[in-house]
Amino acid sequence: MAPTKVKSEDTPEDTIKLLENKITELLEESVILGSKGQHKLALDKAKAAAKKERILCTQRDQASFGDQINLDLTYYVLFNLANQYQANQLYPEALNAYLMIVKNKMFNHGGRLRVNMGNVYFAQKKYLQAVKMYQMALDLISEQQHKHITSKILKNIGSALLSMGRYQDAIASFEQAMVEVPCHTSVYNLILTYFAVGDSEKMKKAFERLVKIPCGLDNDEKYALATDADAQQKLLLDAIKDDSLAKWEKEKRGTVERYILSAGKVIAPVIAPSFAVGYDWCIEKVKLSPYAHLACELEISKALTFLKNNDVPHATETLKIFEKKDSNMASTASNNLAFLCYHESDLTQAEKYADKSIKEDRYNPHALVNKGCCLFNKGDYRGAASHFEEALRMDATLTEAMHNLGIAYKQENRFPESLEVFLKLHSILPSSPNVFFMIADLYDRMDDLPNAMEWFLQLLSLTPTDPDVLTRLADIFERDHDMSQAFQYRYEAYKYYPSDISNISWLGAYYMESQFVEKAIVFFERATQIQPGEVRWRLMVASCHRRIGNYQLALQMYKCIHEQFPENTECLKFLVHMCTDLGLKEGSEYATRLKRAERAKELRQQRE
User: Fold this and answer.
1) 357, 327 in Cβ contact below 8 A?
2) Is 192 strand, coil or helix?
3) Is the pTM of this model over 0.70?
4) 349 contacts 341 by C-beta, under 8 angstroms
5) Alpha-carbon distance 557 to 538, whole Å?
6) pLDDT tens digit string along 295-325?
7) Contact, 219 vs 291, CB < 8 A?
8) How many helices, marked H, and strands, marked E, lie in the chain?
């Protein structure tokens, strides 16, 4: 029988090595979690790694291995911890962690992290401290060896100065960054700064520089499948078409294009006597650049600017140019024309352009929404709902389609489906009063009074002075037999909108039923002022005086009402009744007039 082997204890070197491996593992997990947006978990891992790194340093000292410290690992731990603090917006902790690296003379290039410290100060809107940090980092970097880094730091300094309103200093910083390494971000910020100081000539020069800077990416032709491609090449192409690099290229290209389009929209109204001339200048420069395909989008922006200025004819004329362009541009132009015609109440033309837009681009969700709106106005709610549903299949977050679909369902009395749509819309637009109202109204229509109350009360917190919301709440409480709450909300609605005859009438009737007749008089007199031709309110005022025993005044009021409305039989009945009770001879005369008025009323009814 073989003797049992006794496992020897780990040596200090082995323990230290295992601990280093564990720290590295924690750091990798922290970085991966941070890249996935799970910042809290990433911070927990970073803290755990920092704790173990301190234990590692202690064990090294105890084992007399202090001279074998792993500086790279220590730097890695502190740097990652600072990054995770920053990602979690724990800015004081992040600054302390960066400071530990910066002040440690053993880290040769730790001073460069003052850029990160500047970014933290920038996020806190402490722009002066941010500039100071950027400048200190810049002083440590050789401009000849690190042009790209120098350019980026200068760009950050310019952004901080721009945020402080120090435009001339910002211009100097951005211009210096452009000398080092021209980039779209720096030129775009430079254009905005020139715009802030009103220098139109420099805006034009900067725009020309912006459109001349190459994107630095290959075109999308590399993803096109060759006609003679085999199965393996097809698989490879499918694999790289949507990989992370392809997504990064798409995002970068989109950012550059946004800069150019945004810059054109900003400067066009101020670089020429009119925005149309300014747009024409920008479009011409873009056409001569590597970004010529953006000229059409600027043309559409020009048309929309015409529309914002209520110049519908020129907007329509500009958009009609695109009817013979490529399908995407034609679809966008037709879609905008449909929108224009719809708001001009020309539904026939609106539907025509919406159909054309859909034909050019079947997957244009906005065109489907426009078509749905045209059908809705024709009363075809089912067809409208179908188009809104299809638009949402193309873009599940298109709030216009979602809102219109909810209304189309509501028109068809499909309240549960409509409620489901608006609840989903509420998750996207959690502070929209219109969405709150729709949800509350749907619960009310479904006779779910508790939920209707809850949503109307939430809406009231957003619009506390809206008399319509207050009135709806009062109505719901009244149906729930809570008259005190109903009165409270009716009275609040009356205070914010004292001309609403329905609330005035309700409050007057409420006071009458509650035997506070004197208070009811105030509301019925207000109703008389609002509707002087409505005899009902005058009769109610007179009736109130009669109820409180003020017979002479009531009689006088009835007489005045009879003079203004001689054929009103109800007034004559009160006059006959009061004259009889008071023993007045006029009673017989009013009785005769009452019979005559009733006979005339019967004859009118027969003729009708």
Assistant:
1) no
2) helix
3) no
4) yes
5) 8
6) 888 888 888 888 788 887 887 777 777 666 6
7) no
8) 31, 0
